[in-house]
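Quick one:
INPUT:
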């Protein structure tokens, strides 16, 4: 069985985005395309209805392209445990209220036992200062934290 990876909203967003003039954004776009092209088949892909909702926002043509990428991912249930852990992450101040959806992504990946959570959200998800605290909270709730990483961290 292949390792599992939770695809967070930023991955399809970077994949289908119009080429950026910002060098960092452009590099992230290229790294995302490279990961999707060369690495995705090595993993079982998962996501959630929340990610589907998020990628459905905005320009309809781009939203359709983002949704098409998620066709390869199995959607995980946003069950009571996911919501409870997400609330714990927010109520503890680890994830700010304004980023509560990010807490849902983390908790969904953890509750469903994902090996990886793939994201470009380095503010609230792939942030080493936050991930230490997230790991502690998840441990206290009885869940293992997936490896939270960006496409850049995989050997491409």
């Amino acid at each position: 069985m292949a390792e599992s990876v939770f695809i967070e909203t930023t991955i399809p967003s970077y994949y289908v985005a119009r080429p950026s003039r910002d060098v960092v954004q452009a590099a992230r776009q290229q790294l995302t395309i490279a990961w999707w092209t060369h690495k995705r088949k090595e993993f079982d892909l998962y996501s959630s209805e929340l990610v589907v909702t998020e990628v459905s926002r905005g320009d309809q043509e781009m939203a359709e392209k983002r949704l098409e990428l998620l066709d390869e991912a199995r959607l995980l249930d946003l069950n009571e445990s996911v919501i409870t852990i997400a609330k714990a992450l927010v109520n503890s101040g680890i994830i700010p209220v304004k980023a509560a959806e990010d807490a849902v992504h983390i908790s969904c990946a953890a509750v469903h036992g994902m090996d990886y959570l793939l994201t470009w959200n380095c503010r609230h998800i792939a942030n080493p200062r936050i991930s230490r605290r997230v790991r502690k909270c998840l441990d206290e709730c009885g869940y293992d934290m997936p490896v939270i990483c960006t496409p850049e961290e995989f050997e491409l």
